[in-house]
Amino acid sequence: MEAMQAGKNGKIGITLVCHWMVPVFEAKIDKDAAQHAIYFMFGWFMDPLTYGNYPRSMQSLAGNRLPKYSKQQSCIVKGSYDFLGLNYYTANFAGNVMSSKDVPPRYLTDFHARLSCKLKYIQIAFHSISKSLIYY
């Protein structure tokens, strides 16, 4: 990677997809559910590249089913990109879902959120994140 960046004057980047999550209600559990859903969709890939490990909430919720980075792997992956592309298509409402012993643990249940595009017949429209982004 370093040889490609230095010798070939190359740039390494990644493009990720993320939906914005809007809490169904203003309750802390729904706000947490929305944040967990973002961590599982975006943080799963971005946090290792930025911090060298998965988001803490993801580690806690997925437990031992989430692979562990060794110190060496963490050092290799951390900061290994020059630029980031973000594909943003839509937003979802996110509401808290308590874990159930009847449901086997898996990716779609780990973040304890129910996602929906509609809330009481109100369809979520394009949620502007343009103020948070820098365009080049």
TrEMBL record:
GO biological process: carbohydrate metabolic process
Keywords: Glycosidase, Hydrolase
Molecular function terms, GO-annotated: beta-glucosidase activity
Homology family: Belongs to the glycosyl hydrolase 1 family.
Protein name: Beta-glucosidase
